[in-house]
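Archive entry: two folds, one per protein. Generate the first.
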Amino acid sequence: MTARNGSFAPLDPGRRILMGPGPSDMHPRVYQAMGAPLTGHLDPYFIGVMDDTKVLLRYVFQTENDLTIPISATGSAGMETCICNLVEPGDEVLVCVGGVFGDRMAQMVERHGGRLIRLEGASGRPFTPDQVREALAGCRPKLVGLVHAETSTGVLQPLEEIIRIVHEHEALVLVDTVASLGGTPVKVDEWGIDVCYAGSQKCLSAPPGLAPVTLNERACTAISGRKTPVDSWYLDLSLINAYWDGDRVYHHTAPVSLIYALREALVLIHEEGLATGHARHALNYEAFKAGIDAMGLGFFVDAPHRAPTINPVLSPDGVDEASVRRRLLEDYGIELGGGLGALKGKAWRVGLMGQSSQKDHVMLCLGALEETLRAEGHEVAESGVAAASAVYADSP
């Protein structure tokens, strides 16, 4: 990569098997879509691509919300889009903080002038309805923020009962589905989620750089009733939606190739079928779980509370987790994530998301991890590959 004699080597990172917290592997059709000829961002052909993308996002979010679009920025910008449009200075906002991304949501609330109320969660466990009910008894928030699948811990947060409780207190519900949308059920309309955002690079298996969002009529009414302007021009949904809908008023130069890619990734999800895709993710998680259990390794999160899409596996005592990750990348091309926040240096975050949730990925990862642990001087209990194979053999 270093310039020599005024020139740079061609880009060639080598084969990567992306099994970390994102990005995930992409289907060849998505790469092909990225290479389609560029159009202008107001070209009639591209307007049709935009319309397709909105329809397909509604399918994945399981919603009929009119305002369902991708923000031209990463998943964290999707978070900030929702917060800066809904939170005005002085608004009370309750955020359920169970990991790094709940904490990020809380920081954004304060930066946009909200009166933050933090509900701290137990490490590696979801919030209970009683915890939320008790927190709501002492405040009247405009908005309650929850993370569905916390990427830093691997906790999958049950939502339905908590959403019902929040609505009883006349607050809006904001849900982070960055690590869950497309990989496990996210039922925006059925569950009553008011505002939801995701990222393009995880279970959707598109390139990083887009943040799908969806807002229902209650949320849109709250935005239209603001007393102050949205404090971000770029993320002001009234301006962005005027480009995505209606008169197509110019707002910014859309990332055309990224939207091509997202559309194709969503088409692939539609072709597979949401339920079939969710079942695939669940099966690959069960096989991975069987392999990790057989090897005598531990998960950070108890089984009932795990997201099937992202799981921190605890590094055994005496094993350098960073060294294992480095060997996996250098010897096998497998990328795992390191621990984040409280798990830094203590766990591997293993992603089974989108195109990376495949039988061959699971088997290769387990076999490579077993060999690498032995090379690091740690003996595993039993063959993880054999245990995973038994799960696949028993599946329909």
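Generate the second and append.
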Amino acid sequence: MSVHPTAIVHRDAKVDPSAEVGPFAIIEADVEIGARCVIGPYVWLNHARIGEGTKIGGHTLIGGDPQALKWNEVPAIVRIGRDNDIRELVSIHRSMYENGETVVGDGNFIMSNTHIGHDCALGNSTIITTYAGLSGHVTVQDQAIIGGQAGIHQFVRIGEMAMIGGMARIVQDVAPYMLAEGSPADIRNYNVVGLKRKGYSEKARANIKEAFKVLFKSGLNLKSARLKLAEIPDAGGEMNKILDFVNTTKRGLTGV
């Protein structure tokens, strides 16, 4: 284990021998750091489980108390998966519930100065861009991208491979594969470029395009749109994901 002499590591913290801890970092008692992790200078970790291969940039805070007026001190953590790249000045707060978890999956790229509030759940391979803010209880599904300075309201869900434009204000769910921007946000298109880059078949992209038209261009109410969506062929499971997302929305859909 490589620990800079100015770092403070509590004797009860569990730090893998292959991890690196930088200058002036503070590692509290209720922390576990996995293999090959790199903890940058001035990082503060508490109530956190850090998966192997994750890098954390300088002055980042992980496991701080939730920003909730009705919160009472209870045991809760932040759980971060493997191979994440978390840059400078990021804050990720622990759950507000007893034995609850704020969760970040695997392979995420969280850029500098972003905030991830209590009880958020990030999937895998997401990108959260500089100065974006996620309020409490936000869900971000796999491979979604959130642009710089975007604000995501509490309890909102961002669907798989959705893309949120910079400075967008998101107060309702954003369906999978869709592109949202504006304040208040609207659905501008489906994620044309992203789907191509990720190797989605021509048929799958055509079906997603049709779903975009049904949901956001047809003028149908949500009940009627659901029926039309069910008629679209499902080339690779994309329609099932969209339908499941639409059927389980509690805040309503952006753009509908």
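Annotation attached to the second fold: The chain has two domains: 2-190, 195-247. Residues 195-247 form a domain with the Udp N-acetylglucosamine O-acyltransferase; Domain 2 fold (CATH 1.20.1180.10).
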